[in-house]
Automatic annotation (TrEMBL):
<dbReference type="InterPro" id="IPR020827">
    <property type="entry name" value="Asparaginase/glutaminase_AS1"/>
</dbReference>
<dbReference type="GO" id="GO:0009066">
    <property type="term" value="P:aspartate family amino acid metabolic process"/>
</dbReference>
<feature type="domain" description="Asparaginase/glutaminase C-terminal">
    <location>
        <begin position="205"/>
        <end position="317"/>
    </location>
</feature>
<dbReference type="InterPro" id="IPR027474">
    <property type="entry name" value="L-asparaginase_N"/>
</dbReference>
<dbReference type="InterPro" id="IPR037152">
    <property type="entry name" value="L-asparaginase_N_sf"/>
</dbReference>
<dbReference type="Pfam" id="PF17763">
    <property type="entry name" value="Asparaginase_C"/>
</dbReference>
<dbReference type="InterPro" id="IPR027475">
    <property type="entry name" value="Asparaginase/glutaminase_AS2"/>
</dbReference>
<feature type="domain" description="L-asparaginase N-terminal">
    <location>
        <begin position="5"/>
        <end position="178"/>
    </location>
</feature>
<dbReference type="InterPro" id="IPR027473">
    <property type="entry name" value="L-asparaginase_C"/>
</dbReference>
<dbReference type="InterPro" id="IPR041725">
    <property type="entry name" value="L-asparaginase_I"/>
</dbReference>
<dbReference type="InterPro" id="IPR036152">
    <property type="entry name" value="Asp/glu_Ase-like_sf"/>
</dbReference>
<dbReference type="InterPro" id="IPR040919">
    <property type="entry name" value="Asparaginase_C"/>
</dbReference>
<keyword id="KW-0378">Hydrolase</keyword>
<comment type="similarity">
    <text>Belongs to the asparaginase 1 family.</text>
</comment>
<dbReference type="InterPro" id="IPR006034">
    <property type="entry name" value="Asparaginase/glutaminase-like"/>
</dbReference>
<feature type="binding site">
    <location>
        <position position="59"/>
    </location>
    <ligand>
        <name>substrate</name>
    </ligand>
</feature>
<feature type="binding site">
    <location>
        <begin position="91"/>
        <end position="92"/>
    </location>
    <ligand>
        <name>substrate</name>
    </ligand>
</feature>
Length: 327
């Protein structure tokens, strides 16, 4: 789908930061800088309008409320006639936002592309303008509906990407993971992008040697609605710790959604391979397959935030909604 009239949604981040007494800080007024720089671009770009989400933030401060504000701004922009959206965002949580928006914008008929930069616009040898205008050019040339991340010349699936470097210009990549899943045949109205969402008490926790049942109990007793448990290998954990397993079982019984991902960068969860994995499945954990942490958290937020019951969340979580579970 080619875009000729795009909304540029500025949230802050390194791309628009300027020097302050305490270091680089988010700054307003970025539209004027973009328009001034556009005059130096040889490529033909689409028409674009600009909107700032105020105040602009360092993406280290990104929250669920910010995600919901982005969704609302994107909805308003498309209703006003925009046929593509470019979100300018800081890199620290860019992959989390790309994943969350992938599930919050299900059913949206126009493409959404997120980008940012490792160095601020105006810095020597910055990647800011190549990323920003490269993303605009990609939208102009044609991008499929859905959420994507553009960085260092690559257009990537929004729910498959992770940040792998804190310095390199190719910091974002789609890590090879086994993706197998049944694609959702028809989008339920309850998770369409027009559906209001509420904040959700979510967390991700890596399994580590020495994790105690008391640690897990304290976490789950804090009101957590969904937990992404980062398991070993293909979905194993301390199966000989009956107390820890009972804590998980009790949490699931009272409605907490428990999802398992692999800690391995190229891993996937397959509970039946080891008895230790089968034990986790038996207490209520659902497999995220080869989904990333970012995708698992974003997907749970979109489902739980829509007010769905535990069993419906688990059913939809196990299906492929936008390409996060299947190629």
């Amino acid at each position: 789908m080619t875009s000729s009239n795009i909304l540029v949604l500025y949230t802050g981040g390194t791309i628009g930061m300027q020097a302050s007494a305490s270091g680089l800080a988010p700054a307003t007024g970025f539209e004027a800088r973009v328009r001034a720089q556009q005059s130096h671009q040889a490529e033909r770009l689409p028409n674009w309008s600009f909107r700032e989400l105020l105040p602009p933030i360092d993406s280290a401060n990104m929250s669920q409320d910010n995600w919901l504000a982005m969704v609302e701004a994107i909805r308003q922009g498309t209703e006003a006639g925009c046929d593509g959206v470019l979100v300018l965002h800081g890199t620290d949580t860019l992959a989390y936002s790309a994943a969350a928006l992938s599930f919050l914008l299900l059913g949206l008929a126009v493409p959404v592309v997120l980008t940012g930069s490792m160095l601020p616009a105006g810095a020597a040898n910055s990647d800011a303008w190549p990323n920003l205008f490269g993303a605009m050019q990609a939208l102009h040339n044609g991008v499929a509906p859905g959420v994507h991340l553009y960085f260092n010349g690559a257009l990537m699936h929004g729910a498959r990407v992770s940040k792998l470097s804190s310095e390199a210009f190719d910091a974002f990549q789609v890590v090879p993971r086994q993706r197998q899943g049944t694609r959702l045949s028809e989008l339920p109205a309850a998770i369409d992008f027009r559906q209001p969402r509420q904040p959700v008490n979510l967390l991700s926790l890596p399994l580590v040697p020495g994790l105690r049942a008391s640690h897990l109990r304290a976490l789950l007793d804090s009101g957590v609605q969904g937990l992404v448990l980062e398991c070993y290998g293909c979905g194993t954990g301390p199966s000989d710790n009956a107390e820890l397993l009972e804590v998980l079982r009790a949490a699931h019984a009272r409605g907490v959604v428990l999802a398992a991902i692999s800690q391995c960068a190229q891993g996937h969860v397959e509970f039946g391979v080891y008895a230790a994995g089968s034990q986790l499945a038996s207490v209520g954990l659902i497999s995220a397959g080869g989904m990333t942490r970012e995708a698992a958290l974003g997907k749970l937020f979109a489902l739980l935030g829509a007010g769905l019951a535990q069993d419906e969340v688990e059913r939809l979580f196990s299906l492929d909604l936008c390409g996060e579970r299947a190629e």
